[in-house]
Amino acid sequence: MLLSMQGISKAFAGVPALKSASLEVEAAEVMALVGQNGAGKSTLIKILTGVYRRDEGSITFDGHDVDFAMPAKAQAAGIATIYQEINLAPQRSVAENIYLSREPKRFGMIDHTAMRRGAEAVLKTFNLAIDVDRPVAHFDAATRQMVAIARAVTQSARLVIMDEPTSSLDEREVAILFETIRTLKRSGVAVIFIGHRLDELYEICDRVTIMRDGQTVAKSPMADMPKMALVRHMLGKELAAFQAIAPEDIALERPVRLELDKAGAGVRVRDVSLAVREGEISGLAGLLGSGRTETARLIFGADKMDRGAIRMQGQDRTYREPADAIADGIGLVSEDRKIDGIVPDMSIRENMTLALLPKLKKAGIVDRARQDEIVSRYIRALGVKCTSPDQPIKELSGGNQQKVLLARWLATDPRVLIVDEPTRGIDIGAKSEILKLLRSLADEGLSVLMISSELEELLAAADRVTVLSDGMSVATLPRKDLSETALLAAMAHQEE
Amino acid sequence: MQPILRLFMVKNTSDLARLGVILALAGLILFGALRYDNFLSPYNILSFLRYNSMFALIALGMAFVIITGGIDLSVGGTAAMASVVAALLSPYHWAAGLVGGMAAGLAVGALNGFIITKMRIQPFIATLATMLAAYGTGLLMANNQSVSVSYDTGFTVIGQDDFLGFPIPAWIALAAYVLGWIVLEKLPIGRHILAIGDGEATAGLMGLKVERALTGVYLASGTLAGLAGVILASQFGAGQPTEGVGWELFAIASVVVGGTLLSGGSGSVGATLAGALLLAMVFNILNFENGLGWISLSAYWQSVIRGAFLLVVVVLQAKLMARHRSA
User: Fold this and answer.
1) Considering only CB atoms, which chain A residues are within 8 Å of B206?
2) What is the pLDDT of residues B159-196, one digit of tens each?
3) Are A90 and B12 inside 8 Å of each other by CB?
4) Do B199 and A81 touch (CB under 8 A)?
5) What is the ipTM of this complex?
6) Could B198 and A90 be called an inter-chain contact, meaning their C-beta atoms sit closer than 8 Å?
7) pLDDT at B327
8) CATH T-level assignment (fold) for domain A240-329+415-496
9) CB B147 within 8 A of CB B239
10) Is-contact B299 B305, C-beta < 8 A?
11) Domain formed by B19-326, architecture
12) Which of B186, B195, B202 is nearest residue A109 as measured by Cβ atoms?
């Protein structure tokens, strides 16, 4: 056993992120580490690599008990990490990046010739012949990744951790990366491969460790773990907290309001078609990394669409920036309230009318009377629990913050509202309240596109669900065909 | 275009900017030589080098700071304070003045490094504060007036005498630039400084000792500013607590004209020297133009013209780099 992490626990500000998690890796094997957002994968890795310190548990690496105080110590011990964003110095040359902090020296000065030769030699083992004097920024993502791996190899790493290494690579580049991983394996190096694309995991990994809610829930050889079982382990099952609030069936097919036709952008969104009808909640499901949020950003004009079409009520549209989409009646309540949504120190009143301010102006000044009217109307309509409209939004609970954000968009009178993980970080009671709210908005004619990782939520509230897998829409299930099994099967992308 | 660029060993956009500043410098020298009688006279060349060595020293330190993505606004105040310290110590021994002035600069640099790396204060704010503190300390020590240096201990030799036909300050600056070039291009620490400017967090994850390198850079900048202060006191025969105003801007401008990005991660010692000489040359040419007697430009107008020239050079550089990048 090369690496054994046992009983690892870690809490941040009293909130447990890891609860007795474990991970074991043999030499010369590729271990898949999978789990949903917040499952604890990256916390576990950061504890291993010395970015965080553990609260409890033990780690043995290469037969020794270890507790790395900083990343440099883990590197020195033979654990190299290749982060998602590829940590290299972009303006420095390939050779320098490979040898930075361990430069070959002659008489105290850098031996540029030796460095160049060494870099060329190690890249050659990966069949890569490039000008190593060029700045790293000059090369594409796959090559940069290879440089990062070459750096790890020259550090005589025994274990290489790759955090979503394929997320920004195209198919050809993925093939090159996998060849590199196989080369590493042959030389006895172990790899921890964090990823979400199931096909890739099955192609390159020998075993899999699945995490959920800060715990290790399953370990198995890849071959003994069917896709369906893997997805089920990742998602787990919440208690049936929601009763179904969608009408049993939609008798008539309502007219389509917003349509995405074979849309694509970069490598994250490859081929997505979906339709949101008048007065319905259309769900958007898929594993992490399947392109859900990216699809929402595409509709909203936040990312540029390369291929395909967007149609609003049958007419082709181009949204160059979010302002265009907003003007056309589209709202987006983003996934991370704290980053994209609320302004914590501002009042409920201000947060609620932020998107509306241009329309509230009278002779250049905010019309306070109309602002008051709108704010109090939505506080009442959505049941926001607060002491007054002037209370800072940061004092509200997650659920009430989310209501304020919903109100912000509703006040712009949208035709389509996209909600990305509307119940994340909200307690269970408030969750069903938010869902009911969305339902009643749909009943009044609003089209809602709801992105969610929680199957129960989709099952309870959605009229139909489009499932994404690896940037492609692989299935659209109407209400009558919706079931956990059907969703899981679609997400695992199995045609059965 | 491409073969010509290759002739000048232009490999990337920052090389191109460096080529631009050297060409501009050559052009200005040619212009001056053709237009003014005494432009290439030994007197003009030597006094040009003698006076501008101080700015070249400060620009060198600034180049290292800016390469890490930081800024050092305290260099002018540090030089002023160091000139006072040097003047006060000059009666004891010429070396006391020299070492004392440099030590004063080193102290400010150490303070900057501590505030920036340990207290995690932005370099702009940290060095703004130490700039004010350095000016204040200098004024306090000098009792709010210039402090005469001793002419008996040989202290004035540093700033006023020649060695092998060239001013001693020019030799000092040359030595500093050679040393700076070796550090940046040949020693690991120089490449680490460049990598830190490229991304501090990344550099840390690659196992580089970020805090140590940053502290070192501010120590160097402070010490070089202290050395400039010593030369100031020695050259003009007095510690000048009110000098140094705007020197940091001259230094930043020299570095930027030399093709170093303010965002860090790229830069060259040689081009910084060329940048400093270029800006000084503009002043020199304006003086000659005044001397011709056709026009009379006040110091204020000279400042405006220098600013405009700087703007033109920077804009041209940005355009050149943008075109090269898209090509």
Assistant:
1) 87-89, 100-101, 151
2) 999 999 999 999 999 999 999 999 999 999 999 999 99
3) no
4) no
5) 0.79
6) yes
7) 42
8) Rossmann fold (3.40.50)
9) yes
10) no
11) Orthogonal Bundle (1.10)
12) B186
